[in-house]
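Example noted here:
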Amino acid sequence: MTTRHDLLRRWVASVLGRNDFTLEPASSDASFRRYWRVRHSDNTLIIMDAPPAQEDCGRFVDLARRLRAIGLHTPEIHAQDRANGFLALSDLGDRLYLAELDTASADRLYADALAALAVIQARGPQDGLPCYDAPFLRCELEIFREWFLGHHLGLTLTLAESAGWDRACDALVASALEQPQVCVHRDYHSRNLMIIEPAGPGILDFQDAVVGPVTYDLVSLLKDCYIQWPAERVTDWALGYRQLAMASGVLPAVDPVRFMRWFDLMGTQRHLKACGIFARLNHRDGKPNYLNDIPRTLGYVREVAARYPELGDLQRLLAERIDPAMAGEGG
């Protein structure tokens, strides 16, 4: 057993006032955080283990309380040791959206998730959150270039390709910045939403929230890196949310074509970043399983780039360099 694990067990014992408990892995995520389920008597708790050198659990505590205050289902904080990076949280169960989404359940589950998203956007906290500004958006796009193109595929762009990449990034950033800016969860998807009773969803992994584009969380949910739906169904859900957001005062009157352009280009920025992060998780952090999600995620980029002239440079890069490299490595 590691020293940190021993430290965690001693802290849990001090929180419970007893030693007769079991500690089992609940989940891990793409960061340095790990989660444990504590069973004692007939009760359970979730323990977040967030090494303070890499993670700031204070943001989680703050945002959990601020989101609960507006009626959202986030874990309740029962105890905390910020110096060592430990939190004791209420247990929202183990029914992830991802495991239970199917053709029959999707409308109902997404209706719940979209209703909660409207609350986040209409009433969610903004004070003290970072802004998803142009440098932030561009920095994320460079993760794709550095980690996916460079480290994963071994590609170096020519001067002409670099200029084309920059033009595509300009279009993506401009589209993001012209949108209404709201509280953005930033990882609002099927691995961070829980089915809870009597009403859900339970919302996790919100500690990286920012103030940013209105379509960001929407496209994270509906063009999920981990599950894919027919394009027509995604469009119906997205346009249904447009009506809800306008009725909630989140959006001014915006025509469907403009809204879907925001949605598609925002998704492209996110999916490029996600491909880069998946590659980084493999090459830097030794987490290869995320490579399985790259084909789906890159597929979203490919489909949108083919439909928008301002992404013509990106489409050529995909066709001429990325797709052949992916084919060569079996991806």
Observations:
- The chain has a mean pLDDT of 95.
- The beta strands are 22-28, 34-40, 43-49, 77-81, 86-89, 181-184, 193-194, 202-203, 210-213.
- The longest strand covers residues 22-28.
